[in-house]
Write a structure and sequence with these properties.
By secondary structure, the chain is mainly alpha-helical. It folds into 2 domains: about 100 residues, Rna Polymerase Sigma Factor, Chain: A (Orthogonal Bundle); about 90 residues, Winged helix-like DNA-binding domain superfamily/Winged helix DNA-binding domain (Arc Repressor Mutant, subunit A, Orthogonal Bundle), CATH 1.10.10.10. Helices cover about 65% and strands about 5% of the residues. It has a two-stranded antiparallel ribbon with strand order 1-2. β1 and β2 form a beta hairpin. α2 crosses α3, α3 crosses α4 and α8 crosses α9.
Length: about 220
């Protein structure tokens, strides 16, 4: 897997200093670089029961507002890379919205994977299976798609939660191995080992399924 789009030899440091000093143009430029990736992350982790009630773009705007209020503190600390800090703020905002709208109906909080000192909603096996299956099936294929989705969900649920999470981080969120390790607070070597173990398990499952999933590649 190539380098993460969030890691580039650019002018982030210069823009961050300007933004922390109150330059809104610099702040807007920084946010624009990561808007699409963060919106995709929110969309993937948004509870299916809230789809139609919460728009990922609106959640992201709330997260950006929170980040703007915390920017000076972050700029003085810089304990994590800028993109991962924005991702953390967005993850915390999504958790807060889940709690507000779902309350006790939320999935077991113990299944959420820690993102630094906060937590982000776990990607459900149902949502992950849907992403792996891809496009919607024609009516004549609906029954087969439902069966494949159930088999995928079963296989994903049997995976270790951390292995499943690192698969999401590396493949669907396109984080580098170093970024995924930092998000999960584990060593890069451990992150790499878990990723390839999860990838091997998933490919074994997919290769046994009809419908072209044998050609799936990370």
């Amino acid at each position: 897997m190539g380098a993460s789009p969030s890691v580039r030899p650019d002018d982030t440091e210069h823009l961050l200093a300007r933004a922390a000093a109150g330059d809104q143009e610099a702040w807007g430029a920084l946010l624009a670089r990561h808007r699409d990736r963060l919106r995709a992350m929110i969309s993937l982790r948004l509870d299916s029961r809230l789809q139609g009630r919460l728009d990922p773009s609106d959640v992201l705007q709330e997260a950006f507002l929170t980040a703007s209020l915390q920017l000076k503190d972050y700029a003085g600390d810089r304990s994590i890379p800028f993109f991962l800090w924005l991702r953390l703020v967005a993850g915390q905002k999504l958790v807060a919205l889940h709690r507000h709208h779902l309350g006790k109906q939320m999935r077991d909080a113990g299944r959420e994977v820690a993102l630094y000192q906060g937590a982000g909603p776990e990607v459900s096996s149902t949502a992950l299976a849907a992403r792996l299956l891809g496009h919607e099936a024609a009516p004549s294929e609906a029954a087969m798609r439902a069966e494949l989705a159930l088999r995928l969900e079963t296989a994903l649920n049997r995976m270790d939660a951390l292995d499943r999470e690192i698969l999401v981080l590396r493949h669907f969120e396109q984080l580098s191995n170093a970024e995924a390790a930092q998000v999960l607070d584990i060593q890069p070597a451990a992150a790499s080992k878990r990723y390839f173990r999860a990838l091997r398990r998933l490919k074994e499952v997919l290769q046994g399924m009809p419908g072209g999933l044998q050609e799936w590649q990370p």
